């Protein structure tokens, strides 16, 4: 749910993917910049917050880890409902995990449509010699379904930061587009709000800027 | 608001996966009406809009039905309401309550209404408490804030209450959400709240939600118009049937014997059970958060490192199964409906609540496949054919004694483990000690082999020789003097003879501590002196003897040499003179005292070689030195001492520079010390050898 209270965007990002593809490692690398789980200070790695500042906009990313086991697949909709973005992780050495990503994409597009920003991450690039999922295949598929493809390595800290940053930017664009669309409909409401949060409300000019940028 | 409605429909979709399939087909999700929106099991498979239409139609149809039917419908509704009250005190009677016996046949619509109104106006103790709390917390913000707050609360409660019978609970939930937003806007925009700080505004919103929900709790929680209660019973029965599921089945690593883990599990279970006793949605939510935090701690204890969702969800499922919380479904639905959406959708609380929903959904759809066991086994477990007794069973079901027994067993196991480890350590320590002993013995023997202990003749410190040579000159002079003074000695002959015995005994006594020095000096002095002496002693004979004896009183060395010289001269042979010290007169007191220490030290090979008398003592010394361990270093000193004897050079070690330096120390006592030290060290080594 992209809440915009006091100029802060709250984005919910859900991590999906088969077990053992490195979902938790990715988020730990991103939030804590640690790989070895022994050095991580957080008690739990299933729910993590990351504060960002993009183009002067304060963004709070809530990253939700999900259980990757096959038996919990059916619980996916409960996890990803009302999320702004999803990171679909697969292991480049494991063809099955890529097929799993495909099924997730289908499901997400079916249920959440274009509202959700998708990022497909081929993790474990440090094991390049054991690669089983070709880069071209993954990239072609990603562009076909409107997702951004990234190659990452949580171990070597490659591509992780960029991936989350790009996703955040994309989510921001989507939200702002939506706001621009809804602006005429809920004018009364937004006007009333704007009166109060005038000091730290940087968002109203932003959508118009974004519109210009898009057109 | 189509988007909002859609979002809400997703929100309820979490309960849509009733069928035991692992995947959701699109057909399952779509609205039954075929409008293209997604449906929900709670809405009979319709989407929210179609369901509302459907319900309206139903209501109209029912209204057209006979009065008795309508009455009956209402009665059943009220009976449920009654049930709820009793349910709180006794859960087991639930089954009975649904029986028609308990249904009242009278028209309760009229009697129920005023009763409820009365309830609302009646002093609600919780609401009163909250009102007092409000005044104490936010009273400082002025009368206006307080008035506005209660005005909003009043309007909210009246509105909801009036709509309670006409609208399905979902619509009421929507209304509540709208009210939350409304109050949010009001707090953030109106003049009344201008002075209130941002944090307090948030708190006020929270408090508003709390207050209205506590006031309306009895109508909004598990409302009679829904089948929440049936769902509660279904899930309760389901969990009861699944009581045999343990941590192992769920692939989660909760160690069942650790006391700490068990305590944490109890804490988690208690927190989860506590959810039912809370009234405000946020309080229920905080119970869930506490429970989940305990679960995370449990996992930390069991595996260490950060806890990921892969481990967290199975553990939470396990906790839910073991806790079997009362009215679980009602609680979850209540929170979903009436908790402020913004809170539920974000933050830790939202995440944990989502996980709880997942756990419940998983339990509802649990199959043999999801536990990785064959269908037959699963069915056997479910029907009670197989019963499993785990540590948890004994801890949660059986008596306290059993529990203690388990704990004690675990304790004993730990103790025996420790004892074993101690014993092992002892063993290794003993082995180490033995090894060390062997090693030491080996090393000692190796060292002994490498450097065998040979008892060598005590070496003469260089300074003594120099001294001796210098003394030779002095002695010569003295001897000359003594010769010139012969007359004087002769005069004192009587006294000297008297002293002879005394001197001899004295000598014997004195020689022992400084034997080497004396001996060497003696031998040296003999050789040096002998040419001069020979004639003299031969000529002088006894008086000479007397002279030397009396001389001994003046100079020890001279006396000594004189004496031995006298002795050697007496049975004079050229050979004897060459190596005078080797064959001292066995009968002479000095000779006998010398023999004791001297004889074994003599290198035999030196003897037969014809040598110059002057070189021989040096050679002798050098030969000895070469063999002694201490002097091995002093090899380079060979050039310092020109030795005419070539065959000896190989053995000859010579004097080191240090060796030359030592004699420069004029202090004689120091030399004594050094010789004594070398002596004592050799004695020590020999004693060690023994």
Automatic annotation (TrEMBL), chain A:
The family this protein is said to belong to: Belongs to the small GTPase superfamily. Rab family.
Domain of life of the organism encoding this protein: Eukaryota
Recorded GO MF terms: GTP binding; GTPase activity
Location(s), subcellular: Endomembrane system
Keyword Membrane tagged: yes
Biological process according to GO: protein transport; Rab protein signal transduction
SMART domains: RAB, RAN, RAS, RHO
UniProt xrefs under PROSITE patterns: RAB (PS51419), RAS (PS51421), RHO (PS51420)
Organism (species): Asbolus verrucosus (Desert ironclad beetle)
Name of this chain's protein: Ras-related protein Rab-21
Membrane topology classification: Lipid-anchor
Principal subcellular localization: membrane
Keywords for this protein: GTP-binding, Lipoprotein, Membrane, Nucleotide-binding, Prenylation, Protein transport, Transport
Classification via PANTHER family: PTHR47978
One matching Pfam family: Ras
Signal peptide interval: none
GO cellular component: endomembrane system
From TrEMBL, chain B:
GO cellular component: cytosol; endocytic vesicle
Keyword Metal-binding: yes
PROSITE patterns, per database record: VPS9 (PS51205), ZF_A20 (PS51036)
Organism domain of life: Eukaryota
UniProt xrefs under Gene3D superfamilies: 1.10.246.120, 1.20.5.4770, VPS9 domain
Region (Disordered): 61-90, 671-690
The A20-type domain, residue ranges: 25-59
PANTHER family: RAB GDP/GTP EXCHANGE FACTOR, RABAPTIN-5-ASSOCIATED EXCHANGE FACTOR FOR RAB5
Name used for this protein in its record: Rab5 GDP/GTP exchange factor
The organism of origin for this protein: Asbolus verrucosus (Desert ironclad beetle)
């Amino acid at each position: 749910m992209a809440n915009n209270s006091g100029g802060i965007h709250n984005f919910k990002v859900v991590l999906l993917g088969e077990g053992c593809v490195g979902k938790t490692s990715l988020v730990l690398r991103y939030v804590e910049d640690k790989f070895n789980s022994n050095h991580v200070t957080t008690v739990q790695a299933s729910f993590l917050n990351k504060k960002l500042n993009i183009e002067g906009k304060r963004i709070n990313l809530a990253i939700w880890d999900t259980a990757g086991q096959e038996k919990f697949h059916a619980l996916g909709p409960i996890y990803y409902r009302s999320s702004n973005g999803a990171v679909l992780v697969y292991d480049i050495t494991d063809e099955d995990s890529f097929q799993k990503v495909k099924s997730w994409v289908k499901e997400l597009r079916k249920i959440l449509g274009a509202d959700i920003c998708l990022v497909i991450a081929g993790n474990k690039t440090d094991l390049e010699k054991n690669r089983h999922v070709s880069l071209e295949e993954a990239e072609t598929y990603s562009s076909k379904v409107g997702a951004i493809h990234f190659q990452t390595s949580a171990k070597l800290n490659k591509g992780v930061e960029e991936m989350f940053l790009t996703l955040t930017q994309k989510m921001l664009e989507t939200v702002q587009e939506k706001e621009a669309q809804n602006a005429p409909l809920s004018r009364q409401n937004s006007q009333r709000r704007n009166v109060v949060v005038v000091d730290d409300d940087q968002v109203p000019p932003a959508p118009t800027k974004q519109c210009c940028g898009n057109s | 608001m189509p988007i909002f409605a859609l979002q809400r429909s997703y929100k309820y979709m979490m309960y849509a996966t009733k069928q035991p399939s692992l995947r959701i087909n699109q057909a399952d999700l779509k609205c039954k009406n075929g409008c293209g929106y997604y449906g929900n099991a709670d809405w009979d498979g319709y989407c929210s809009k179609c369901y509302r239409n459907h319900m309206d139609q139903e209501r109209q149809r029912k209204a057209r039905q006979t009065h008795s039917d309508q009455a009956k419908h209402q009665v059943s509704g009220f009976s449920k309401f009654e049930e709820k009250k009793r349910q709180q005190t006794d859960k087991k009677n639930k089954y009975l309550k649904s029986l028609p016996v308990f249904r009242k046949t009278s028209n309760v619509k009229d009697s129920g209404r005023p009763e409820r109104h009365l309830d609302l106006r009646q002093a609600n103790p919780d609401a009163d408490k909250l009102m007092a709390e409000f005044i104490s917390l936010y009273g400082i913000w002025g009368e206006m804030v307080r008035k506005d707050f209660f005005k909003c609360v009043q309007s909210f409660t009246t509105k909801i209450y009036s709509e309670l019978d006409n609208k399905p609970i979902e619509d009421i939930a929507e209304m509540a959400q709208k009210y939350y937003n409304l109050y949010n806007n009001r707090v953030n925009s109106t003049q009344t709240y201008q002075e209130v700080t941002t944090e307090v505004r948030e708190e006020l919103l929270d408090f508003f939600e709390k207050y209205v929900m506590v006031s309306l709790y009895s109508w909004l929680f598990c409302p009679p118009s829904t089948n929440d209660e049936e769902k509660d019973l279904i899930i309760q029965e389901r969990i009861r049937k699944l009581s045999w599921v343990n941590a192992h089945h769920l692939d989660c690593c909760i160690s069942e014997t650790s006391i700490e883990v068990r305590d944490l599990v109890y804490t988690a279970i208690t927190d989860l059970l506590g959810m039912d006793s809370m009234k405000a949605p946020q309080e229920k939510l905080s119970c869930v958060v506490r429970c989940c935090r305990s679960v995370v701690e449990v996992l930390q204890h069991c595996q260490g490192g950060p806890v990921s969702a892969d481990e967290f969800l199975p553990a939470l499922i396990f906790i839910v199964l073991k806790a079997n919380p009362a009215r679980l479904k009602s609680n979850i639905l209540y929170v979903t409906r009436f908790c402020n959406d913004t809170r539920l959708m974000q933050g830790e609380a939202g995440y944990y609540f989502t996980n709880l929903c997942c756990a419940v959904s998983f339990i509802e759809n649990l199959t043999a496949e999801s536990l990785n066991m064959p269908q037959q086994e699963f069915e056997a477990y479910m029907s009670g054919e197989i019963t499993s007794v785990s540590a948890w069973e004994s801890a949660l079901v059986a008596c306290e004694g059993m529990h203690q027994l388990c704990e004690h067993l675990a304790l004993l196991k730990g103790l025996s483990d420790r004892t074993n480890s101690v014993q092992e350590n002892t063993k290794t320590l003993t082995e180490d000690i033995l090894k060390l002993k062997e090693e030491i013995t080996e090393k000692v023997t190796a060292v002994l082999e490498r450097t065998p202990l040979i008892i060598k003749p005590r070496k003469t410190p260089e300074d003594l020789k120099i001294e001796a040579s210098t003394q030779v000159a002095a002695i010569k002079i003295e001897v000359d003097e003594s010769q010139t003074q012969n007359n004087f000695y002769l005069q004192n002959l009587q006294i000297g003879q008297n002293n002879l015995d005394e001197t001899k005994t004295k000598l014997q006594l004195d020689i022992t501590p400084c034997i080497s020095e004396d001996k060497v000096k003696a031998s040296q002095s003999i050789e040096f002196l002998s040419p001069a002496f020979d004639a003299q002693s031969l000529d002088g004979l006894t008086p000479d003897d007397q002279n030397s004896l009396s001389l001994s009183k003046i100079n020890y060395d001279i006396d000594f040499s004189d004496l031995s010289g006298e002795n050697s001269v007496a049975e004079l042979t050229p050979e004897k003179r060459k190596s005078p010290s080797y064959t001292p007169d066995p009968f002479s007191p000095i000779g006998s005292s010398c023999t004791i220490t001297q004889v074994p030290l003599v290198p035999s090979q030196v003897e037969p070689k014809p040598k110059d008398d002057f070189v021989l003592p040096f050679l002798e010394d050098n030969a000895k030195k070469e063999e002694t361990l201490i002097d091995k270093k002093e090899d380079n000193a060979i050039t310092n001492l020109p030795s005419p004897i070539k065959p000896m050079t190989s053995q000859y070690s010579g004097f080191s520079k240090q060796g030359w330096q030592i004699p420069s120390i004029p202090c004689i006592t120091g030399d004594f010390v050094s010789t004594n030290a070398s002596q004592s060290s050799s004695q020590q080594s020999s004693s060690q050898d023994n």
